[in-house]
Design brief:
6 strands, globular, Rossmann fold, alpha/beta
């Protein structure tokens, strides 16, 4: 009987850990950052967060706006509107596929600034503002090349790897202080983006006892090529 009670209590705790955390949305804001000058890909994320009742801002950061002052200014304006920064989502720039021998060093550095350096600035400013509240969610995004870069994708893969390592380090450092840091690896095909808004919303409202540090979306095209 004692063992049965222990098992029932453990099962109950596991079930409770999977239930979404309750979020008081009245004074909280989310920011979706788009990095680089390309077609917006964060619209579905913005729509989902707004539909759920969270004040959501959509910001595009071209290469010319990557600085501590520019990013801090965005956060400061939101706080002046009497909202606390509760969710920050970064959708990274994909970059160009090209042979390793054709990569221009200046272009590589510029693309690194748009991805790794931007994520550093955004993450640092976000965590600084979340710490007093002892809560918040920061989600970085990379493409599948961060795990398995193909031919001609050395630049893209190396940039994404930097973002991935940054995310994992922040998750370990600030998770114990109530800040959830996660990394989403999106596939290179449209199928992995069908429910993009729902994916990020589910990560945001995860129970603290079941936080996901990394979510890898299957890429059906790449899987087919690998097993072809």
């Amino acid at each position: 009987m004692i063992i049965q009670k222990i098992l029932k209590n453990a099962l109950r705790e596991n079930i409770n850990s999977l239930r979404p955390a309750k979020v008081d949305k009245r004074d909280k804001a989310a920011i979706v950052f788009e990095l680089g000058e390309r077609e917006p890909s964060g619209d579905s994320i913005v729509e989902r967060f707004r539909r759920e009742g969270l004040q959501t801002y959509h910001k595009t950061l071209p290469a010319t706006d990557i600085s501590v002052d520019a990013i801090s200014g965005i956060y400061d304006q939101i706080q002046k509107d009497n909202f606390s920064i509760d969710a920050v989502i970064v959708v990274g720039s994909v970059g160009q596929e090209q042979s390793f021998l054709d990569i221009d060093v200046d272009e590589l550095f510029s693309e690194w600034q748009q991805t790794c350096l931007s994520c550093f600035y955004i993450g640092q400013a976000a965590v600084t503002r979340m710490q007093p509240n002892k809560r918040g969610t920061v989600i970085f995004t990379s493409v599948a090349d961060v795990l398995d870069p193909g031919i001609g994708r050395a630049s893209i893969g190396s940039q994404g790897a930097g973002v991935r390592m940054l995310s994992q380090s922040l998750a370990r450092e600030f998770g114990p202080h109530g800040i959830h840091v996660s990394h989403v690896v999106m596939g290179n095909d449209d199928a992995s983006s069908n429910n993009q808004g729902g994916i990020y919303w589910n990560l945001y409202q995860q129970n603290r006892t079941a936080w996901t540090q990394e979510l890898i979306m299957n890429n059906q095209r790449r899987l087919a090529e690998a097993h072809g």
